[in-house]
Amino acid sequence: MSRYLYFFALLCTLVACQEVSFPEPQPRGIEAAREIPAPLRGQYLARESNGSGGDTITVEAWGYHLRDKDDKDWLGQGRLSDSLVLKAHQNYYFVNFRSGDQWVLRVIKRLPNGDLHFMGLDVEDNENRKTLLKKLSKYGPVKEIKRDQDTYYQINPSAAQLMEIIKEGHFKKETLERIGN
Known about the structure:
The protein has about 180 residues and is mainly beta. It is built from 3 helices and 12 strands. The protein starts with a helix and ends with a strand.
């Protein structure tokens, strides 16, 4: 798995991966944002695991772009569209990436100091996957879907159930440090 959850969604297009997915953008029944809300816009640093500098994410009204620690823009960008959908619900932001006919979810929580918790459901590790999928099955069936070299574990929780999954701590958190406007 990639060091950063945000980059992981991009890597899935290049290598085989395993993801929890959804049949539609989450949370169900919540309208998609037309632009990134002002409180999320700015520059963020994703530090290396040893605490040194890492990649920079710049969030703008239209989407985001990534630069590596050498300030190279090879990591790409994402624009709000029919394949990148942002929703807001109960002080969380839900970033939905379309991958074929599946939707992969990342959840953002803005912290009081402006930093972001960037969260995803980690199923790359075998032991963690079995435990997590068992816990997720209490919210409905978990469908295993294979596409080429990718495996998706699709769930379809209600908005209330999705909030329970988040509050129960099933999402792995990475902190993105706010470094500028």
